[in-house]
Fold this sequence. Notes:
This protein starts with 34 loop residues before the first helix and ends in a 5-residue tail after the last helix. Helix content is 75%, strand content 0%. The radius of gyration is 23 Å and the shape is globular. The protein has helices at 35-51, 60-66, 71-99, 101-120, 125-153, 157-188, 193-196, 198-212, 226-249, 254-276, 290-320, 325-330, 333-353, 355-373, 382-409, 416-449, 459-466, 471-510.
Amino acid sequence: MSSPTTTPTTPRTTGPARGGAPSPSAEAAMPYPRRWYTLAVLCLSLLVIVVDTTIVNVAVPTLASSLHAGAGALAWIVDSYTLVFAALLLPAGTLGDRFGRHRALAAGMAVFGAGSLGAALSATAAQLIAARAVMGAGAAFIMPATLALLTAVFTDPRERAKAIGLWSAVSGLGVAIGPTAGGWLLQHFSWSAIFAVNLPVVAAALAAGPFLVPASSAPHRPRVDVLGAALAAAGLGALTYAVIQAGEGGWTSAATLLRFAVALVLLAVFGFSQVRGGHPMLDLDLFRDGRFTAAAMSVMVLFFGLAGSTFVLTQIYQFVLGYSPLEAGIRSLPGALALTVASPLGTRAAARFGIRASMTAGLVAAAAGLGYFATASGGTGYVHYMVASMVLSAGIGLTMAPATQSIMSTLPPAKTGVGSAVNNATRNLGTVLGVAVVGSIAATSYTGHMAHGPAGESIGAAAGIARHLPAPAAAALRDTAAQAFVHGAGLGVLVTAAAIAVTAALVFRHLPGRR
């Protein structure tokens, strides 16, 4: 730890900063000199937790054979991370505001690293599921802390906009490069490597934090709303669980409807507690502000589209076009590149034309990319999907930074942690919904087009059966399965395109213009 610094003179004091400079929240007039190095640490911390939302997907076949895991266990290996992550976001953001966002970041990285080590050493599916849940708990503290710290460190509005653009680029980039990283690691190492790779990143972030991440907490530290935290965790966890299970058990089944009812009751009780409580964790009046609500909705539908299209596109690359996991991951890189390039452009467009114009243009582009994706057929080649993913990713890049900036600009300094958690909770919910809704539509359409039997269970099952058939029969089965799956994937992607198009209209209607 560095030595204490000069006592701040402004009323927003949060205590001595670390790293030999005044805390940015303490001296708004004096920018933190190492802020761009701070941003590098924050983006590194963000990248590792976002990559883990998708890196496991390409390892599912390997995990099934290595751990003798059934379909249910495999689903929970993927979903346990997202479930705990989503459930703890709001409480974690509040605790960061209360006890220090730098402490929340360090604690989250330590927990995430411990979970990664446990995952790499797991010998059974149950152990891996538990370790992934621990990783999700750590990630819940990391993500809101990164955005809240960024807001505190960058006090100049123009610099803050640029920093949010880079943060947003990393946020979307992690989703896109996860399959590539997972495919490369699986080709050169065992499945444990997809978790062990997190350890040096965690070590680097923890080592750099005391020197490059200044202390930051709410100017007037809020009381811990224990009841609100418990209800938020239970409500978001129940809602995420209901969405995950609906994709497997059917959206209109009695069990699914009961799960959604429980989630809605818990969230309603949480909302009531926030309205009636003396020290609410979340100010629900924020949702009356069109800048906050429209931007949060935009984040959710964009990740709804990105996660859903990525889920089916990974299968199309491997089972329809015949690429290996690594080849499929490499072919996802143009989309990641488009997102990286478009994110700073979104920041510039928002500065020149206004947040509404930039967000509307980005949402329209994302909807157009998904609509083009849906025009594919079983014989469509790679270039079609590459163009669709690049247009979609460019739209996300144009929208994410202005949307995040819009959300954070509505928040008082005492609530940047919990506000960041709301932003990330909508993102996580969109991701879970994308996989569940698009996957469910694709699977339902596929089984409806295929004859009853093993080949009708999934396109992966059809590919496995085709390997044991004579060449003419195998080719016929692969063609039929490809047509059926691509048709179903197109229907699912069209739903996300429609949701994004509707949101674009709402953003244009409710966000203020340039002034």
